[in-house]
Design goal:
alpha/beta, globular
Length: 494
Amino acid sequence: MKVTLNGELNKYYVQMLCMIFFPGVKFSDSEDDGLSVTVGIEKSETGVTAKVHLVFDEKVADAEATEEYSPEATEERTLKIAVGAAMLAAGGELLGYRPSWGMLTGVRPSKVAMELLQSGYSKTRVKKILNQKYSVIPKKASLATDVALAESSIIGTPSPLDCSVYISVPFCPSRCAYCSFVSYTSKRLISLIPDYLVKLGDEIDSIFAQIKRLGLNVKTVYIGGGTPTILEPDQLRFLLSKINSNCDVSTLEEFTLESGRPDTVTEEKMAIAVAHGVTRVCINPQTLSDDVLRGIGRNHSSSDFFRAYDIASRSGIKYINTDLIAGLPGDNFKSFSATVDKIISMRPDNITVHTFCVKKASDFLRRNCNVYSLRGGDAGKCVDYSQIRTVAAGYKPYYMYRQKNTVGNLENVGFALEGAEGRYNIYMMEEVHSIFAAGAGAVTKLVRYPESSEEKSVIKRIFNKKYPYEYLEDGGRREIERETDEFYREQFSL
């Protein structure tokens, strides 16, 4: 798709708007694939006018939208609203499609709602603004507002000296067909685990030493992957002991161990987790349909999930999360709704409902499967059902994000029983404080959270080597520490 801009426009924003209507599209300034958009803007003293000329399969649509300046939006956001409105009108005319999230394209659909709430607007007014200005349908506007309120309550007043720690164990027993995470499954790569843990342990020592030197306060620790419970019991004990030796885990708000693959969960591993202070595990069925599980490459059955969940619930772990995915290939409303009903009946502390997302590096695309979906088939109905049923059962939405190329442009939402909200996810997604990261593919995200709505966050990302074999050969921790020290000196005068 060719994108032509006339005026001071954010090209990436325009491309994301295009992907609402053309999921999976590739952008090129030279190739002519019969799909193009031209966007122009005109600024005046009172507002912004945007014009869109959209060409698709020899069909043409032209649309124009004007947005006046108001206290509810900055000049930049006013421009985005005008462009978004014109694009929605042109895309809707050509395709007869109205996206449920309107022109909101970012990872955080509740971000606008949170900013409006922080500016003093009432819950009712925020919903109206999302619906009228951003073209978000009412039920999604309500969801975004509820999530923003829940996140604001959990975040409270952040301290600039707060931080969290993420630890990467990028190995899995098998690769899911929809996955693009940096995770490794072959015997050769899994054979790297012993050496990997030694290197990881040294990095954990360095990170916590730096955190103490800077006078920071660790709020949460999150061990993710991959599947950390792929580790053998002695290996898991080593990793958790390394964290315990560096941090008083009893003072943490949350200590999470991803245990997403039920076929890796044993009584011994859960006992080790409890003994080392882990408070939250994630045991993920994705679906309870064995046929769908086989189709997506999950080497476990629904009975394996029930076994693993029973082990975790009897272990004494404080909180258990279960992940579900709506819109998986081969799934439908009947089987997904049955999964939702069964999971709710088990009363996990958290239920996170994802929408199937087509990743560029996933096996589905390598098989040349036609999995991109504009309307999402049953996915929208499945997502609606999950939200209605969880809320009716006493769960509250507290966390939400979206990804590119999600079927139906739908969202991922975390639901929790009162007091059981997963805090790390909020701190990480809302960029509340710095995340120190260890391991292959891990990203340290240094954050200075704004003290007022007029300020912007200051964020610096530092990337570890992506692959385990690169990570084992890398000696770059010293450079990461230097950059981190420099960030804190500049931002906090430490």
